[in-house]
Amino acid sequence: MESSMLVNIGFGLVLGFLIGWLVEWRLDVSFWNSHIAQLNRREAARRVQAEKEIEEAQIEAGQQVADLRRQLEAEIAELRARSEEQVAAARAKTETGPSRTRQ
C-alpha cells in the first residue's frame, strides 16, 4: 500500500506541477498578448502623428514653393520691363544720335 501511495503522491505532484505550469503559461501568454497589442496601438498612434507632421510639412513646403514662384515671376517681370526700357532707350539714342544728323 505504501508503494501505491507513493505513486499516487508522485502522480499528484507531477499533475499539480503540470497544471500550475499550464496556468502560468496562459497568464504569460495573456500578458504578452496585451503588451504587444498596447505596443501596436502606440506605434499606430506614433505613425498617425508622424504622417500628420509630414503632411503639414508638405503643405508648408508647397506654400513656400508657391510664394517663391510668385516672387520669381515678379522679379522676372521687373527684369523684362527694365530690359525693354533699356532697349527702347538705346534705340531712341541711336535714332537721335550723330548718324541720323549726318544724313
Write the layout of secondary structure elements.
Elements: H1 2-95, H2 98-102
In short:
With 103 residues, this protein is mainly α. It contains two helices and no strands.
How would you characterize this protein structure?
By secondary structure, the chain is mostly helical. It has helices at residues 2-95, 98-102. It is rod-shaped. 0% of the residues are buried.
Strand content of the residues, in percent? under 5%
Number of H- or I-type helical stretches: 2
Low-confidence stretches at least 5 residues in length (pLDDT < 50)? none
Task: Summarize the main sheet.
Answer: none
Task: Give the N-terminus to C-terminus distance in angstroms.
Answer: 148 Å
Rg (CA only) = 44 Å
Determine the structural class based on helices, strands and strand pairing: mainly alpha
List keywords for this structure.
0% strand, 103 residues, mainly alpha, 96% helix
